[in-house]
Amino acid sequence: MGAYILRRLLLMIPTLLGIMTVSFIVIQFAPGGPVEKVIAEVTGQGGGDRISGGGADIGNQNFATTDSTYRGAQGLDPQFIADLEKQFGFDKPPLERFLLMLWNYARFDFGESYFRDISVIDLILEKMPVSISLGIWITLISYLISIPLGIRKAVKDGSTFDIWTSGVVIVAYAIPGFLFAIMLMVLFAGGSFFDWFPLRGLTSENWSELSLWGKIVDYFWHLTLPLTAMVLSAFATTTLLTKNSFLDEIRKQYVITARAKGLSERQVLYGHVFRNAMLLIIAGFPGAFISAFFTGSLLIESIFSLDGLGLLGFRSVLDRDYPVVFANLYIFSLIGLIVSLISDLTYTMIDPRIDFERRDVG
Predict the structure, then answer these.
(1) For the chain, what is the HEC assignment?
(2) What is the mean pLDDT of residues 65-84?
(3) What is the distance between the alpha carbons of residues 85 and 272, in angstroms, rounded to a whole number?
(4) What pLDDT, on the 0 to 100 scale, is given for residue 14?
């Protein structure tokens, strides 16, 4: 197993390199950039596009173009444009920017934001509590609901309970999370009906004055509507996945044999079926967690004014704040790879028959 873990860790290096290389190349062909943004603000145009050239290159505050001609720059001092390019690192060759980016990122040095007076890593840490809250709780709640419900549906397959819960699950999955979030906001957050829940932040203004119990209540009071809006699709997907996985196992020969030996239904279900059926559920955990933690909360964060990583990444793309964009990409890709490895290792804990090392050797 140690050799397998080492191979997986070493494979992360070319994987990250490939992700950053492709992203680096794509950004070069994207219109606009930080220089155009500054020029647009100076000239009052509100936006800017590159006339020609190879686009923007990304590094640790190092993004370069092969051309210094920008739309809207006519009449501006050429030295001013040159200073802008130097400020954003556009005065060096693309390959040098790329290699510098890799060197800095390997040391977890992400530089500073172009348009915020703060380092990128501090900015990410500042927004992390919101995303941690949403990601952890949405994953925990969805699994706590979905796994027992999916097992129950598998045991009662074809019954009235299975039919009506399937209807609820399908309807829940069909409703977009952001649409449900708007409905919740209208109903319970000062819209046309009730004003029961807050619409901004994770805590109230008097947070520091509250007791420990008061802080806990206040925290979950702020999270109630966002989590309710986000749990729908995750809860539906995991429920159906759990049901189908258990149905596949229940119909296998070893289950019939276990029942023939006189084991109770509970012993068969949790002593034999559960371990095998849960392998598929675990396989989907990394994707579900990463999605909820990093990407699934963008619209919810926008609707409920939660300043998390999803909203940070979106605004950074719009602002062409490339250090923030690529630091997010690098960190989240690395975490995704690590979580995937942890998931594979969890397989062996649940089912010792799985041996990734022997499979790779064979």
Answers:
(1) CHHHHHHHHHHHHHHHHHHHHHHHHHHHCCCCCHHHHHHHHHHCCCCCCECCCCCCCCCCCCCCCCCCCECCCCCCCHHHHHHHHHHCCCCCCHHHHHHHHHHHHHCCCCCECCCCCCEHHHHHHHHHHHHHHHHHHHHHHHHHHHHHHHHHHHHCCCCHHHHHHHHHHHHHHHCCHHHHHHHHHHHHECCCCCECCCCCCCCCCCHHHCCHHHHHHHHHHHHHHHHHHHHHHHHHHHHHHHHHHHHHHHCCHHHHHHHHCCCCHHHHHHHHHHHHHHHHHHHCHHHHHHHHHHHCCHHHHHHCCCCCHHHHHHHHHHHCCHHHHHHHHHHHHHHHHHHHHHHHHHHHHHCCCCCHHHHHHC
(2) 60
(3) 64
(4) 92
What's the chain's average pLDDT? 77
- State both tokens at 85: 């390019």
The pLDDT value given to residue 293: 63
Share of the chain above pLDDT 70, in %: 77
d(CA 216, CA 237): 29
Structure tokens at 67: 């051309």
251 CB burial (10 A radius; 0-12, 13-18, 19+): exposed
94 and 57 in contact (C-beta within 8 Å)? yes
pLDDT bin (cut points 50, 70, 90) of residue 188 is confident
Among candidates 103, 6, 23, which has minimal Cα distance to 58? 23
Percent of the chain residues topping a pLDDT of 90: 2
